[in-house]
Amino acid sequence: MRPLELTLEGFTSFRKQANILFEKMDLFAITGPTGAGKSSLLDAMTLALYGKVARKTQPKELLSQGGLKLQVSLRFLVDQTEYLVFRSWSYRTKTAQLTFKLEKRINGEFQPFGEQKEAEINAVIEKALGMNFETFTKVILLPQGQFDEFLKGKSADRRKILNSLVGYEKIFEDMCSQAGTRANLIKGECNAIQEQLKNLDLSLDIELNSQRRDRFHFLAQELPRLHQTVTNAQTALAAEKELLQRLKILADWQQQLDELNKEAPKISKLKQQLEQSRVGDRLSATWTSVNLARNRYEKTQADVETAAKALSEKQSAFKIQEDIFIQAQAYQTEIAPQLKQREEALNAAKIYEQHRRVINDEIKRLEKILIEKFKLITEADKAVKKAEAELNQKNQILMTANNELSQYFPGESRLEQLNQVIPLLIKWEGIQKQVESDRTKLQQITQELNTAESDYQSVILNFQKSEAECNQYRVELDTARQQNYAAALRALMHTGNDCLVCGGIYPEAHLLPQLESSGDITALEKRDRAAEQNRQKATEAKTQAETTREHLKKQQAEYQKTLAEKEAELEAETEQIVVILKADKWEVKALDQERQALHKNDTNYQKYLIHKEKAEAEIQANELNLNFLKTKLLDTQTQHQDLASELDHKQTQLQEILDTLSKLAGSDSYDNLFQKLEQDKRDLEHRIQHETQCYQTDRDEFRQAQQHDVKAREDFDLASTEKEHLEAEWKNSLLSANFTEEIFQQSKISPQVQNQWQQKIDDYNTNKIQLETNVKRETDAIGDRTTNAEIIAQQEKSVADAGEKYKQAQDEYNDLKLLIAKAEEQREQVEKLQAQLSTKQQELETYQILSKELRSDRFQDYILQHFERELVEVATVFLLELTEQRYTLKYENKEYKVEDNWSCGETRRVQTLSGGETFATSLSLALALSEKLSRGAKLGSLFIDEGFGTLDAETLKGVSSILLSLGKQDRLVGVITHVPALGEELGTQIKVEKFLEGSRIVVTGILA
User: How far apart are CA 40 and CA 12, in angstroms?
Assistant: First the structure.
């Protein structure tokens, strides 16, 4: 997880909104005074991600004093996926109003991700990070200061620190509690199993004595024999029943055969009738031909009579229509000359009528054109008047523009010169002010540097004095301790003992000089501690003075360089201005006022010049338009007069034609006369056509009737001849079959009835054969055997008796089998419960031992030692990276040592390491712990609590180098420090400043 942006408001000391962008940061320091809120930044991240922090239990406790709303948001990156989480708590009412939101960047835009509820948001974030709240709070902040104590502390102290860092204290307590709880549960399960064993009834096994078991085995052997007896009895019964059934079937078939023989006379008569019907069927073809000939004879006779009658009627109708047709032809001959005379008169009037229509159409066209021309004249007159008014208006505008233009003049070259120089003057003025400010600041820094140099000399003297005094007191203390130790040893030794110092024989006590006591050791130790504290303070003051002096020197050099650059830039700008103005002196304000006045005058001049040019162009266009409109009006008026003259001429021609038509056609019009003539001609033509068609139709019908009459007589002669021939043939057929026509009519039976008779005859023959066959077969099968109901009843009783014996034996066998199975099941259950009891008792013993061991220190020591070894293995990898493969961390005999690979593998205790080396070692342990606790989750960011109060120059350089190398490992690294010099060394700083209105954040450095 790599944070990209943190925003917080109303959170602890941050009353107002504060924002930090981490995107351009890799390594930075978080600095600020105690209580400003440095640790609150990490708490804000934790609250945004998990909704809680490690130091407090309720969000309300994190609310700024007097505030009503707390809100935090964090934009972070996990596996190249960007998320934004927002949480807000409003306390404007008695009940807090909570707002939660989690979004994911998809296609460049943030979109809601998952269920927008607190529990779902927490679960999604925990899954994405791969860490729960407890793991995150342990791996995100590395307590390097505690590991510094861890390295240099005793074994017991290290155990307490490691327990606190890893959280083993709570883990061991939880494990002990869970082991005790589990032991109690298993003990209860053991008691329940024992109770079940007591309640199991084993009496059934006692009841199953040897006699019952023998009986069970006897029945197992007897059951197959009894079953075979039942089977044999059932077989014999089935055979008797089958014989009885055969006897019944034989009697039934014999009865059916007797009844069938009674039907023989009827079947004989039916065969005779069927043969007669078949003879009649053979004569049917001849009868059909005779019958058809008789019908055809009668029909042709009737057709001859009908044709004769129709011929007489058609002949009368044809005679009448012939007379009417002759009359119509006579009328046509009479009326034709009259129609021709009328047609010639109309042809003469037709020419004048066509001429009249052409002139009349021309007159209408001219009248329409005259109306349109009059409209055009009106419109053209209006357009001319409008153009004249517009021309007058444009002349007035031109006059006004000339008056306005005469009041202004153009800026020309002077305005161009001022426009070019004014931006340079503004830049020159800004650089001038900056140069003056830098000079003032450089003077202040120089004064501060002189003061710092003086303070530094005083601090050096004080440091040398404190160090000399501390060394003197340390020598006096060591001397006193040695004297007291020697005197104590001498007091414990006796003559002849081995000397603990030189290893020789201790002489008589009176031969050694008497040792004097060195006085009060406690007072000397107190004085030594006070001197050490003074030396430490002097060292801190010396380091601070050196840091301040170096910082001021660095600032002085930077300001000197900046001032030189600005002065050179100011000189270059001055040269450009002189070239443009061609003057060594100038007044910026006066030049700017002159430029503004010229610019305003030039702007107005250009404005009215454009107005004048526009007005002149519009006047020219209006004059051209006016001349065009006047010409158009004159042309339209001329065209109107010409059209009026032509219309008068056409009207005169029309009147002359109307007079001529009146003389030719009389009072009626040409069209009416023409229509009457055409109607009379059509009527005559229709009458002639109608009468001709009727005459032709009647003539054709008369001729057709004649043909029908001839044909009917011919058909009658043919039918008469055919009838005589077939009648003779039919009489011969009846004689040969010994039939009369009456017998033939009676023998005509339909094929369906004949089939039915044949079916009855066939069924009779088939049934008789079948019954005779069945009777013979059953008689042969039965032979001389016989049976009756009494024999079958005896067989059924034998089957029932055998079945009852078999059922009783089977029931007894099943009951004995159930008792044996139940006893076996209970025995298996007892064995299973006993096995479960044994397993549970072993498990109970294990948890009791585990609970006991967890309450002791031995198990915890074992776990911690194993964890320490793993921690050292991982820390060695980090230490090699941080120290350029120089140091390897070792854990031997419960002590920490380092192996110097640059000194041929020399091993040293960690207490002998310098400040920078100690920092690298403790930081490696902190990184190792973070990686172990993260359980493989990729950490894109780390925050280190460096734990130093002050740093000397050498340690500061070593720590800075280590942190810079750590910042190059593709992750965000933040260092919470109380040493300002360390923040300066790292470059980028997040400064937390403390004010009465609340803390503020200031980001400084090259990447800020």
Answer: 7
Structure tokens at 894: 């419960």
Written as one letter, the residue type at 227 is H
Q: State the CB neighbour count (10 A cutoff) for residue 159.
A: 20
pLDDT digits (tens, 9 = 90+) for 646-700: 888 878 877 777 777 676 666 666 677 777 777 877 887 887 888 888 888 888 8
Beta bridge partners of 993: 1000
Residue 521 near residue 473 (C-beta atoms within 8 A) = no
pTM value > 0.70? no
CB 626 within 8 A of CB 394: no
User: Which amino acid is located at 494 in the chain?
Assistant: H
The single-letter DSSP state of residue 935 is: T
Q: Do 524 and 480 form a contact (C-beta atoms < 8 A)?
A: yes
Residues 6+ apart with CB under 8 A from 526: none
979 Cβ partners below 8 Å, 6+ apart? 946, 948, 949, 950, 951, 956
Q: Please name the amino acid found at residue 289.
A: S
Using the structure block, give the residue that is written with the tokens 């055809």.
Answer: 296
What sign does the dihedral 777-778-779-785 (CA atoms) show?
positive
Asked if 540 contacts 950 with a C-beta cutoff of 8 angstroms, the reply is yes
The Cα–Cα gap between 958 and 884 comes to 12
Q: Which ranges of the chain have pLDDT less than 50?
A: 203-207, 500-501, 503, 509-510, 515-518, 1007-1008
What distance, in Å, lies between the first and last C-alpha atoms of the chain? Answer: 21
Alpha-carbon distance of 222 to 229, in angstroms, equals 11
How is residue 884 written in tokens? 């350029």
Closest CA to 464 of 550, 525, 539: 539
